[in-house]
Amino acid sequence: MKRQFSLAHLTVLGCPPPEMTYIAAMTGYDYVSIRPIYMGLPGEPNYDLAANKEMLKQTKRALADTGVKLHDIELARIYEGVDPKRYLPAMEIAAQLGGKAVLSSIWTPDRDFYIEKFAELCDLAKQFGLTVDLEYVPIASVNTLAGAVDVLHAVNRENAGLMIDTHHFHRAGDCVTQLQSLPREWFHFAHICDAPGEIPTEKDEMTRILREARSYVGEGGIDVASIINNMPEMVYSIELPNIENAKTFGYAEHARRCIESAKNYLDAHPRG
């Protein structure tokens, strides 16, 4: 079975979804993973397709022109006071464009609240045929595999999934043997990238690498193969923000290097 890859939003942060789709097609990706949920972060472009009808039209055209498909949308964060219904317009767009999944993460320490709201998010997504895949992030409230597993067991929703990012898995100090015991149906896609092997002790440095200085697969210190090979085969979404490389090579060449390095690495580290 041919491996399938998606080009993730952060890898080509400055590209709106139509341009991103053409870059994905040009460089050999099967899917795109876009961010139509505007988060309001400093310097973040607004790709809210529900509010920008012209950009939505151009995105539909790009998908039709290229044959690239939409895989997932991000980022349906659970944070203090959030109403998951605010994500409905983006989920409607995802379904309209043929998407499969909604990426989520949790940014409040209030367990009762985030369990309730994550379950609600899953229920809202179900009507669109979408999974909701929980990503644990080192700088978020749910920041370990154990924490994410706790959420999935608690909500007990058929369309809830676990999204492993190789960077975050390494930074959390998680063990690959833990992956083997988890339900296979939880795994829908993974984020792959590399990064320096030394885990930063300062949050600012952790955040800097996470958001703008990840490495091509095989060029860092993460044992990516062990993580990937202890999960089922699935779509690999390459989330590899690297501001310096994007400026040096341009977004298209950066995206090409991302997928080429990932393919070469995975070919060299086959499943046992």
TrEMBL record:
Keyword Translocase: no
Keywords, sorted A to Z: Isomerase
Database matches in Pfam families: AP_endonuc_2 (PF01261)
Limits of the Xylose isomerase-like TIM barrel domain: 24-244
MF annotations from Gene Ontology: isomerase activity
PROSITE patterns in alphabetical order: PROKAR_LIPOPROTEIN
InterPro entries (UniProt xref): IolE/XylAMocC-like, Xyl_isomerase-like_sf, Xyl_isomerase-like_TIM-brl
PANTHER family referenced in this protein's UniProt entry, alphabetically: BLL3656 PROTEIN, HYDROXYPYRUVATE ISOMERASE
Name used for this protein in its record: Sugar phosphate isomerase/epimerase
Organism for this UniProt entry: Geosporobacter subterraneus DSM 17957
